Amino acid sequence: MRCIAAGLELWFERPGFPPVPPHRQSCHARGKCRAQRAAPNIMIVVGGKRGLNKAVFLVEGAHRTMLVLKRLITFIATSLPVFASGVASAATFGQPEPWQLGLQKGATPVMDDIIWFHDLLMWVITAIALFVLALLAIVVVKFNARSNPVPSRTTHNTTIEVLWTVVPVLILVTIAVPSFRLLFYQLNMPKADVTVKATGKQWFWSYSYPDSKFEFDSLMVQDKDLKRGQPRLLSVDNEMVVPVNKIVHVLTTGADVIHSYAVPAFGIKIDAIPGRINETWFKAEREGIYYGQCSELCGKDHAFMPIMVRVVNDKEYTAWIEQAKKKYATDDSRPTAIAAAGGAN
Prior knowledge:
Blueprint: E1 2-6, E2 9-13, E3 25-28, H1 34-38, E4 43-47, E5 56-60, H2 62-88, H3 109-142, H4 158-187, E6 194-201, E7 204-209, E8 214-218, E9 240-243, E10 248-254, E11 259-263, E12 268-272, E13 278-282, E14 288-294, E15 306-312, H5 314-328, H6 337-344
Parallel strand pairs: 6-10, 9-15
Antiparallel strand pairs: 1-2, 1-3, 2-5, 4-5, 6-7, 7-8, 10-13, 11-12, 11-14, 14-15
């Protein structure tokens, strides 16, 4: 048995093998060949079938294998911090997470039901997809021209026709019952503890608290003004503040074009249409900051209309209301600039 080394490959022969190309360099099989001595980390890959008299032994260069391993290690090393940051932010509510799969964590009973229904549908559609895949595999394997040269002439099968009619109906009913229940839960407005009117404008939101008689604008914080911990494109200068475990009634309208008020963690999304008042509600069960965005294409700065809702306890909410009344109070008795100009004439 002799070894012929050339470049990055080693070829081992037995008597009866086809002739080896003349440019190959030979060495003794029992000892280390020159290529092995030059590259001691060569990996040997053996190919062949048991019981055959002939076998082919292919040896690949170590640097090619090491290159693949190096790239794999580099990928893992660069990916770990990303996944670690995603795990570290798993306790964060109210905003998207790096490498997030699925919906945001729910902060309201409505969103919890939405997530449950979403997971139910995932199981249903996965089962349907696997069933169809199995049928396709059976058809390909069992009813191809080689396995089934004489095809069946069957055109009707009562059992199959009943099953493919009844089973989809049962699946749709299974989906429809929790779907309608969730829909009614979302649209049934309970008695409100707090009412907030959100007006969409190009391109910011205005919040009005009718019970407390004040209103303020909420604009996105520019990149140059962001503080540590403030997420980009989601932070605002004046956030909407609501109490925890209270029913918040949200009225939405538009001042110019159609906008959409959406906060994923609350499970709410309602259009803000000029000349019309829409309504939705939520009950936040966890304190914290929750983010949303305008979800209706409304112009060139549509992507810069964030929504920021701060959920606080009753004591903090009462204190904020008193501060907001002083900060955002509107004086209806003070004449506007147009009225003052008209009086002067």
